[in-house]
Task: structure prediction
Amino acid sequence: MSDGLFDRLRAALGVSTAPSRVRRTVRGIDVVLDNTRPDIADDDVFARMDEVLGMIERYAPAKLRRLRRDIAGIDVKRFACRGAFFGETRRVLTELTFIVNRDFGIAEIASSLLHEGVHARVAAAGVFRTQLSLAKEERLCRATELWWGQTVPRGEKVVERALATLELADRDVAPAVDWREAAERVAEVDRRARGV
Result:
């Protein structure tokens, strides 16, 4: 039997498997994939990441150069939101199912990565963060998304999302998140996807 068949059998039976951890360099950036979903092919994830970084390289080469300097790499794994920046490791997270979901265009995924790049730039500048500054920082991120959506082909959804967020009050632009509850919801979605 092939490894793919064993993975499908384990998934059908609800038997957990250790995530497939794969590291590759994509357009000069260290990308680590922790794939906990047997229904998602590693090569698909890396191909989409290449498309995302390729689009940024084409339409915003200076932003890609800055991103390469400001972050240590990109982690792709299941998470409770599309993306995140972790200052302690200087790594950006891109959510696993988000990057492979064809309902989201390359421009949208790139927008999320550029958004997290703004957080990385602010962290690299050594800005002291307060609740008020978090809202301002989030608005900077959304302004970058807006610019991106207006710059690239098929950026309408990016523009729409950025404008909607920019209209929110500060407490809603940068809301407090219960990460434990969020992780439980992700786990429940994954259990349903496995039919458990």
About this structure: The CA atoms of residues 72 and 119 lie 13 Å apart. The chain has a mean pLDDT of 89. The two ends are 24 Å apart (CA to CA).
